[in-house]
Amino acid sequence: MPKAPEPASIRQLLEQATQRLHYDSARLDAEVLLACVLNKPRSHLHAWPERVLPPATRTRFEALLQRRAAGEPVAYLTGVREFWSLPLGVTPDTLIPRPETETLVALALGKVPTGTTGRIADLGTGSGAIALAIARERPRCQVIATDLSATALAVASRNARQLGVTNVEFQRGNWCESLPATPFDLVVSNPPYIPQDDPHLDQGDVRFEPRRALAAGPQGMDDLRVIARCAHGHLRDGGWLLLEHGYDQGDSTTRLLEAAGFREVSDHVDDAGLDRVATGRK
Question: Is the pTM of this model over 0.85?
Answer without folding.
Answer: yes
